Amino acid sequence: MAGLPVFGPDGESIGRVRDVVAGLSIGRRPPRVLGAVVELPTRHRIFVPMLRVTRIEPNAVTLATGSVNLRKFHQRPNELLVLGQLLDARVAVDPAGTPAVLVDVAMEQTRTRDWQLSKLAVRERTGRLGRWGPTRVLAWDQVSGLGFAEVTGRPQGVQQLLAMFDTMRAVDVASTLHELPSKRRYEVAEALDDERLADVVEELPEEDQKDLLSHLDDERAADVLEAMSPDDAADLLAELSEVDKERLLGLMAPEESAPVKRLLEYSSDTAGGLMTPEPVVVEPSATIAEALALVRNPDLPVALASLVFVCRPPSATPTGRYLGCVHIQRLLREPPSTLVAGALDTDLACLSAQAPLTEVTRYFAAYNLVCGPVLDDEEHLIGAVTVDDVLDHLLPEGWRESGLPEAEPNPPPKREPR
User: Fold this and answer.
1) Are residues 227 and 310 in the same domain?
2) What keywords are annotated for this sequence in UniProt (predicted)?
3) Fewer beta carbons under 10 A from the terminal one: N or C of the chain?
């Protein structure tokens, strides 16, 4: 069910399934499925009771009504997230107590129309070398070790979660991690590679960022900061104590920490604090084909790819004298063999590093841009501001935790009892 789209009875799109909520029962009885965690297009996560679900198909989940409670989902005591907490749990197969790991869970509807977790797919550990055997499908009461305290208190693998995350964007992974208990969040963070973890940390709320960074050992934390974009790393370090900030900067490679240190010199609500020091820069002797090759880089953010800045050497920020920029639409219209110097936009106004957020906002609105150059007093390019960084500072505080506001004229109804 992970990631399945959710529709109302008339086919209206509501969101996607991100997890299933179950209440573990006393003894060995199969637990009752309470509902699904559905992520709305605004990244806001809500709880939808199973009584609202009319059909679960291989490609979609259909609800009985398009009217849902928009209150943010909060996990209650004695509830477990099936994807987030049950998968990868260490269990024992009865009667011999053979060690195994839980790799999937099946749920089915009973005669009373309730849903319950009925079957478990497990892989047993076999042989002296501790290899995993083939997958077996067992009834819930044939497996032990799934009590609430056992699941939430013991170390747990993350292979199934990581497999699910492989198909998700970093922002969706961040939303999932935010909803997980701290124990599972730490286990996932430790298993992700530095690049992937850096992408996810950039999308987390500020408190979650600091919490994860403090959990990692200093060397790993410095590696993750190096993998983050310099502006996001600077924003995160600015929230730490001076002692922690200097210690982590000292552990970073000098070529990685240098741009971060430059950004930390500016206030966070100025163009200098908002900018990234790694825009696309070419020399005037570069060809259109060379400029297009740079913006084709799949790792380059879309906003940064919209403008190529032309400067005298050196090309790394702070560059030589800034000459102008070339818009990507112009690059696509010009013959590949011509020089970028012949396609320059020299009339576009530039931002100063000290420009306040209000001035930066007016700049983007006036020129209809998604990226703009930032110059120092000597007309050297020192970075570029992108519209996503501006929006981050314009949106209400805590928008990552609460999601974007819904366009609903009436207040949401009370949450249904489960």
Assistant:
1) no
2) CBS domain
3) C
